[in-house]
Amino acid sequence: MKCFFDEIGHACALQLKGEFTADHVDSFRRSVLGHLDEHRVADFIVDCSELEYVDSQGLESLLWLTDLCAERLGQIRLVRLSEPIKTVLHITRLAGRLPVHDDVNSALASLE
After folding, report:
1. Three-state SS string across 22-76, please?
2. Assessment of whether the complete model's pTM goes beyond 0.85
């Protein structure tokens, strides 16, 4: 999996590409923490349009990011999820903890 960061408004846009599995958790967390050290953002918009698969450890890492944002008085929003990943969030009952939006603009507006 690859992570790409960009600043959008007052939030950080984080794009995930590929498969998010246990093999990628450590590098994901290091990347996020490194970005937070450089840029003092609290809100993350996670673009999942190119995320092909997520396993339980990947989901746990998104929850970790949610908690990290909350510690900084921020929030997380997921955007552009594929139907299979939406189904996984629904089955695991994480849809309430990981709010989903169709596009970046609506996600950004929900953070204001």
Report:
1. HHHHHHHHHHHHHHHHHCCCCCEEEEEEEEEEECHHHHHHHHHHHHHHHHCCCCE
2. yes
Integer Cα distance of 23 and 16 in angstroms: 14
Residues 104/15, Cβ–Cβ less than 8 Å: no
- Residues 39-80: tens digit of each pLDDT: 888 999 999 999 999 999 999 999 999 999 999 999 999 999
Give the integer Cα–Cα distance in Å for 59 and 57.
Answer: 5
Token representation of residue 101? 């939006």
Domains with residue ranges and CATH for the chain: 2-110 (3.30.750.24)
Q: Is the pLDDT of residue 3 over 90?
A: yes
Q: How far apart are CA 110 and CA 38, in angstroms?
A: 25
For 92, how many CA atoms within 13 A lie in the half-sphere containing its CB? 18
- Residues 68-95 have a mean pLDDT of 93
